[in-house]
Write a structure and sequence with these properties.
422 residues; alpha/beta; Rossmann fold; 3 domains; 6-stranded antiparallel beta sheet; 13 strands
């Protein structure tokens, strides 16, 4: 990570939308005075420079702690709540691992081919192959687990020092150690001839800042953030509805903060996949799972409402006289919660959901798309998420990713998963 100075950090703070809005809303201080104010305030932050996602913490805390000082037109030093911490770059003591192509990969490809053949031959093929495929999947998971554990035992010494979770549909493993740091695990595994890729379990954050001001749905030239839209520069949703509003046989998996499946504008368009219409891969801040993808509370804090907003944009009920209409109001939503109560998630939560989507697709659920309105700048074209997304594509699933809201050039500064060459 490049060395950061106070001035370089402040320049980045002042380039953010939130800071520009704060400056515009508070006219009593000049930019130079506000700059000094934040500079004084920043001296109180412990461990500030080790966090890549520092901007979110600065903007969030500065609004609480600086507004009163701005109104009083003073540049005195500011005390901050030391209990409020920034979003970490990655989960400690955890890594994501992919192994080199081997017999497991060949078996995996053979199984994908078999599933494709099942789709072609439908009922007759299913009767002939169902038991065989289930057995092959179980054997593959057993062999994959044995391979993983053999490598890890060589590195960590004993089973008691680590736990691993295999995403068997993706060929990827999530590892958590009780004795090794993330960097120690990476150093120990990266030169192993069986390991293709190892990386930290990076955090991901929500990619949506102004969810209620969308020109894309219907643009009549309305003003958003002091800028006028261009009339009819939208997705022509109304025109598309003259052709179709989607089908109830089609499922869109929404990987997000969960979905309020009891919401009056969404409840009729939820998948019937158990009592709660999906799954929660981030039930608490330790990443424990449960079968209820209802958003965390308080609902309006830390973006917990986001998944419900996204689900409504996709498939809010049409013609019920309430709320809004979704883009495809006849399709079904599969709610997969991948964000933890603190308001962010990890790569492991995302991969677990991808694995679940692949499993459900192979079991016959007609998932045609994954919506991924989140992102991180930590990633590369050879990492585990890109491999997983390509696998979903091979199953006929379209992957829809948010490009982010930083106003930056994603070609120059990649944002993942939207920048994957998948």
């Amino acid at each position: 990570m490049d060395e950061l100075t106070f001035d370089s950090i402040l320049d980045k703070i002042f380039a953010t939308k939130s800071c520009k809005i704060a400056i515009k809303a508070n006219h009593k201080l000049s930019i130079l005075e506000m700059r000094q104010l934040i500079k004084d305030w920043m001296k109180y932050i412990d461990g500030f420079f080790v966090c890549q996602h520092w901007r979110e913490s600065v903007v969030r805390l500065s609004k609480e702690n600086i507004d009163s000082k701005i109104q009083n037109n003073t540049s005195s030093k500011i005390k901050v709540d030391t209990n409020q911490t920034a979003i970490p770059l990655y989960a400690p003591n955890e890594v994501i691992v992919m192994f080199e192509d081997n017999n497991l990969t060949k078996k995996e490809q053979n199984m994908d081919d078999a599933f494709e053949q099942m789709d072609k031959d439908m009922a007759s093929a299913f009767k002939q192959m169902d038991d065989e495929l289930k057995t092959a999947m179980a054997n593959m998971e057993t062999e994959m687990n044995a391979t993983f554990r053999k490598v890890f035992n060589n590195v960590f010494g004993s089973d008691s020092n680590f736990t691993n979770q295999n995403f068997v549909n993706l060929g990827i493993c999530f590892v958590k150690s009780t004795t090794k740091t993330t960097q120690e695990m990476i150093e120990a595994l990266k030169n192993n001839p069986k390991v293709k890729f190892v990386a930290p379990n990076y955090t991901v954050t929500i990619s949506d800042e102004y969810s209620d001001k969308l020109w894309a749905i219907k643009n009549v030239g309305q003003v958003v953030n002091d800028k006028s839209g261009i009339a009819d520069a939208d997705m022509d949703v109304k025109e598309a509805w003259n052709i179709t509003k989607g089908s109830s046989d089609v499922v869109v998996a929404v990987l997000d903060t969960g979905v309020d499946y009891l919401h009056e504008d969404i409840k009729d368009n939820m998948v019937s996949d158990g009592a709660h219409h999906g799954y929660d891969f981030a039930g608490d801040d330790n990443g424990n799972n449960d079968d209820d993808p209802m958003p965390d509370t308080p609902y309006r804090e830390k973006g917990h409402y986001h998944g419900t907003h996204v689900a409504g944009t996709i498939a809010a009920t049409s013609g019920n006289g309430r709320g809004i209409e979704g883009i495809a109001p006849n399709v079904k939503i599969l709610a997969l919660k991948v964000f933890r109560p603190k308001g962010y998630g990890y790569t492991s939560d995302i991969l677990e959901a991808y694995d679940y989507v692949a499993k459900k697709k192979k079991e016959g659920m007609n998932i045609v798309a994954v919506n991924a309105s989140y992102g991180t700048t930590s990633g590369n074209q050879n990492d585990s998420q890109n491999k997983a997304i390509k696998k979903l594509g091979n199953l006929g699933i379209v992957f829809c990713a948010a490009a982010g809201n930083d106003g930056s050039n994603n070609d120059a500064k990649p944002h993942y998963p939207s920048s994957y060459d998948a």
